[in-house]
Write a structure and sequence with these properties.
receptor; signal; 40 strands; mainly beta; five-stranded mixed beta sheet; 9% helix; 2 domains; transmembrane beta strand; 22-stranded antiparallel β-barrel; 46% strand; Maltoporin, Chain A; Plug_dom_sf; cell outer membrane
Length: 851
Amino acid sequence: MMQSKKSKFGISSLSLAISFALAGSVASAQAFAADEEVAKKENVEKIAVVGSRAAPRSIGDSPVPIDIISSDDLKKNGSTDMIDMLVTSVPSFNSRAQPISDAATLVRPVNLRGLPSDSTLILVNGKRRHRASVIAFQGGGINDGAQGPDISVIPGVALKQVEVLRDGAAAQYGSDAIAGVMNFVLKDASEGGSITVSQGEYYEGDGAATTIDGNIGLPLTDDGFVNISAQYKTADATSRSVQRPDAAAIADAGNTSILNPAQTWGNPEINDDFTVFVNSGFDINDNTHLYAFGNVSSREATGGFYYRNPHNRGNVYSVDGGETLLVGAVNGDQSTCGVVPANVPNVLDTPEYQAMVADPNCFSMNQIRPGGYTPQFTGKIEDMSFFAGVKGELGEWMYDASAGTGSNKASFGLKNSLNPSLGLDTPTDFDTGSYEQVETTVNIDFSRFVTIGSLEDISFATGFEWREESFEIGQGDDASWTAGPYADQGFNIGSHGFKGFGPESAGKNDRNNIGIYTDVEAYLTEDFLLGIALRYEDFSTFGDTLNYKLTAQYVATDELSFRASHSTGFRAPTVGQENVVNTQTSIVNGDLIQTFIAPPTNPLAAFYGGEVLNPEESVSFAAGFVYQYDNLFLTVDYYNIEVTGRIAQSSQISVEASDYDALRAAGVEFPELISAVTFYTNDFDTTTQGVDVVASYTTEMLSGDAKFSLAYGWTDTSVDKYDPETTDAGKVRRLEDGIPAHRATLTWGQSWDDLSMSVRGNMYGEYYATHADDTSDWGSEVADAAVTIDLEVSYAVLDNLTVSVGANNIFDQEAQKLKDGTLGELGAVYYESGPFDYNGGFYYGRVNYRF
């Protein structure tokens, strides 16, 4: 439950929290007392530290649902992107492609249990991972406005395993854990290593991708280790496009400057994508252990934007929908330049246009871009982190003290664009500025076992966390944001497609918070486990919160146990969501409009209903069972998550001409050049429920060893309340039905002495498909269910050398095509909002050498 600083959860709640605990951290210190041999085995034992601060336990003994994905399981995928690897392994975990989506093209948003990416807390080695600087302005409905961590920078080669807690855990781990927690555990071997080279491309012959990665474990004297992992990737762009009808018509009329296709829908080109992770540890003595880990990563991407039609693109070529050409006058008197009709097959051939060009006082942007233009969006992501700490024993207490920092910077640019307000003097390439997210975290936690009366081995953990995060907008070059001399003649201000950040937008905002928390678990009987967690947090910007979690497990028989949990939670609005500024091009009813994204307290946003953001609140319930018999393992879990005051990006709100004077009086410059505004708001109350089924079975078959694995998820979201003034019905429907309600993955792994095979079937149910961010009837429909098949075969040529070949979507299952009336209208063939890759089948080969 969330209250302000003056609430009943003020001094009294702090006292209550302190009475339960002094401090706590993400992972129990008792995790470090685990059996040394278990800790050093890679992916043999399904042991997890998330979900509980008691000693690590097997996933079958956990009172909350946890998935363990080993490094070997991650490798059985043609993609080397961490997101793609996890989508095929975790029920209710989804992601989608982002072909034309501003900065979200650089950092793909994900969702767990039907909630946005910033509702899942990401850990590395049990420590909180910083979020990405990129905010998903066009996040496919669920992720609209989300700002989650960038897990794609984490390479599979660096990981021992991934632990996925599918349960609300804000009371244990703090903000962002409403949907669950993912813990990426780095390799800690002090010897050996591997080198892997993989290459593949799509059946269509494009998107060629090359990945080289390696890992090496080194001793740090006899008492420590340094484990280093590195990965380098490149990928060509893809195109699943057709020529736009409007561009084709102008080309047929004689305009030779039209590209074919004029607009590309496809994956961006990825260059110089590298990442290095280092994990290290050192035993000072039997009771004290030092550790440190971190990463340095970088990648560059280039993707396409929407095509600008040279007859009718608003505030560039026309201001009346393409009836006449927008003509500027050097002397400021546009009436002297005459009228140039634009509703003709080819404006360049008209005598009015040729007369205008001959007049040195008159100009149009056709003189620079006669065939229109399609801006290219470029971006560079730079990511780093470093954590260090000490853990050990003090008498009967285990402790872990750590500090770390992480940053993610996204630098943006545009190629092949214009600043129309500068007239013919405009550059065509721009540095539009940057976003940078920086987070610093300090943790100290303690844990021990205590005995109270007849209850023995009660796990008690307590601790303290301090965090500071900042979001900074870096200014772009002057030409990318300046209002040139022709702005008052109707020409758009700033680099078109992605306006640069000016001095009024640039700046740094930050906040800090403290967390005080405790965790208690005890077996009340030999078969009944009960746990309680309590967490108090206080934020410098909006107030404090007190949340709790209850967990229980009952072992009915040797094979069957039942488990349940109940928790409250919260998610604080990010500093970026509170302060971000951007300009994007959106599709509404099939038309392109320029939308200004403003902070909710900006005069423009405030005029149309923007207010100061408040934290989300959540209440979660979950129940399920675990069944284990011989080689069969089965878990079934139901969950129900109610979120109130859910933070999301509003729909595009039209800036009306009747409001221009009032907006100017409020301090908004050139409101007539802004088609619509959108901002972040606590606009929704939602209820998300679902069922996750995870099963595995091992047996001897076909003279070898076989393992069958099933991951099935049913997810249903209903919007209980929303504000129709800031949110349209299409956006609501996308929240409710934008991802398949049913999704399943069935995997058959078969191995012999030197040969192994993996076959995976992926089922996706029906979903509400939208064309880009257009939720109107023009751009949306219900998409059909589909099944894709993946296959990989590996052969050990030598003891240490393995060759693998395979294909994702081996039968080239086609993605949902756009419906009649929409197909090809903007150059697109498929709904890119689908749950699987619309680029089609992808084949690959891989060589792995271990030493």
